[in-house]
Amino acid sequence: MADYDVAIVGGGLLGSAFGWGMARAGQSCVVFDEGDNAIRTARGNFGLVWVQGKGAGMPAYAAWSMKSTQLWSGFAAELQDSTGMDLHYVKGGYDIAADEEEYRQSISRLQQIQDEMGSGAYTYEILDNAQLKSVMPLIGDIPGAIYTEHDGHCNPLTLLRALHQDMQKRGAQYRPNSPVTEVRQQTGGGYELVDQAGQIVASAARVVISAGHGSTRLAEPLGIDLPIYADQGQVLVSEKVAPIMQYPTTGVRQTDNGSFLLGVSSKDVGLDTRTDLTTLAGIAKRCIRIFPFLARLRLQRAWGALRVMTPDGCPVYQQSATYPGVFSFACHSGVTLAACHALEVTKWIMDGDIPAAFEVFHPRRFHV
Amino acid sequence: MFKRIGKNEQQVTFEFLHRTVIAREGDTIAAALLAAGILEFRQAPEDQSRRGPYCMIGNCFECLVQIEGLGSRQACRERVRNGMRVKPHRGRIELEEHDET
Ligand SMILES: Cc1cc2nc3c(=O)[nH]c(=O)nc-3n(C[C@H](O)[C@H](O)[C@H](O)COP(=O)(O)OP(=O)(O)OC[C@H]3O[C@@H](n4cnc5c(N)ncnc54)[C@H](O)[C@@H]3O)c2cc1C
Ligand code: FES
């Protein structure tokens, strides 16, 4: 007999959503995580729960993001009720353009997505400068923005904390500072997880590999192809200001504690989280173009974090063909998809099967 | 409480919330305030809890103060100057009053 129904490797946004969903469904589960010096994207993201612009060329991803935002309010409310933590989830958001080129691109991309989604298409509103100014008086001389009620933002650190706290309250084991180095098949069924010292730390009927950038090494020996790479994003944080901006925009949002977050760059620099002045200055310049008042604020800090990126930007979900019961999940936008991961993907894991409709997220799509 | 080490006797005088603080040349504002027995630098905007320096190396931002002419600064990263006027950090500033500091 295995110790647990499910063992999850990685306690970031994906692993925590799975652990929470599993515990909520009454499964016995354990979540292994590393410590403070690990690469932890869950602690460095921008906090958007976002749909707009996602899934051009992959309508299943657009629909999946949309589904997650539809589940998000209930998901946040449930976490909030159970933990007393306010996730500060606010719905409504603007894809804002700093120049004509960005504006044109956003509009045509969104049109393409709607065409591809067919009956699943969602509503949005294109606002020119004057229209945008009437709802956001602080904008500068920019072309405009696209608004949807489906986009939004939250406090992603509170989200992570709430998931950790509540999954343990519901019976899941959380083991920090416990890197798993190997997953191997047990004689007689099930899998065992091994630590650096070669000790077996747990056994489970099913295993989920959702260790962000740590996944590749674990997954490879299990016949799992994981085409992910690190896409570095840098974020700037301003001093705290009394609330003046309720809704998030692409690149600028005011957090629940008053800071403005300015983002977000995209660079392929390997596993390097260091910030650099050129990138930070580029971000600041674009954001000040959009909201000139930002130039008057003092910046307090900046950070770099590593997106778990796939070649087409869409999730990579799979079950090992050779080791049934071993799943691997990786994606960008783990905040947005947290609700789907917690409430939908956990059903697949329990069923031992990824439904046919989600086969499109298998990485074999990169080998046609 | 805190005890000074080193021998620099050059005095610098500055003001913290209407109180005159005597510091040594080369002190950071944070070191000077702590040496004067002042532990509360600000109130946290989230819950109004009282805060003061934690890391003293520029990482935690717990030591924020308001410096006349400069605005919001980390007290552990600014050296005291004669006649400087410092106030506790005001938490969340209003955008309009921002330019006055
Ligand atoms: C700058 C930036 C901005 C972003 N903005 C947004 C946004 O606005 N909205 C959004 O939805 N998403 C956003 N994201 C993406 C989001 O943060 C990620 O999708 C999400 O964090 C990925 O979750 P993860 O669990 O796969 O990886 P992580 O969050 O990195 O978690 C992986 C965990 O696994 C642990 N681990 C690794 N190896 C092992 C091992 N061998 N054994 C045990 N544990 C291990 C690590 O320590 C880590 O805790 C952003 C990302 C970045 C970088
Ligand atoms: S005491 Fe930590 S930043 Fe000043």
Task: Provide a short characterization of the protein structure.
The complex is a heterodimer of chains A (368) and B (101). With 368 residues, chain A is of the alpha+beta class.
Question: What this model shows, in words?
Answer:
The complex is a heterodimer of chains A (368) and B (101). With 368 residues, chain A is an alpha+beta fold. Among the domains of chain A are: 168 residues, 3-Layer(bba) Sandwich (FAD/NAD(P)-binding domain), CATH 3.50.50.60; 81 residues, D-Amino Acid Oxidase, subunit A, domain 2 (D-Amino Acid Oxidase, Chain A, domain 2), CATH 3.30.9. Chain A contains 8 helices and 16 strands. In chain A, the strands form 3 sheets. In chain A, strands 1, 2, 7, 8, 9, 10, 15 and 16 form an 8-stranded mixed beta sheet that branches. In chain A, strands 3, 4, 5 and 6 form a 4-stranded antiparallel beta sheet that branches. A 4-stranded antiparallel beta sheet of chain A has the order 12-13-11-14. In chain A, a hairpin with a 6-residue loop joins strand 15 and strand 16. The mean pLDDT of chain A is 96. By secondary structure, chain B is mostly beta strands. Chain B has a single domain, classed as 2Fe-2S iron-sulphur cluster binding domain, sarcosine oxidase, alpha subunit, N-terminal domain (Ubiquitin-like (UB roll), Roll), CATH 3.10.20. In chain B, strands 2-1-7-5-6 form a 5-stranded mixed beta sheet, covered by helices on one side. A two-stranded antiparallel sheet of chain B has the order 3-4. At the A-B interface, loops of A face loops of B. The complex binds flavin-adenine dinucleotide (FAD) and FE2/S2 (inorganic) cluster. The site of FE2/S2 (inorganic) cluster (FES) has 13 residues of chain B, from loops. The site of flavin-adenine dinucleotide (FAD) has 42 residues of chain A, from helix 1, strand 11 and strand 14.
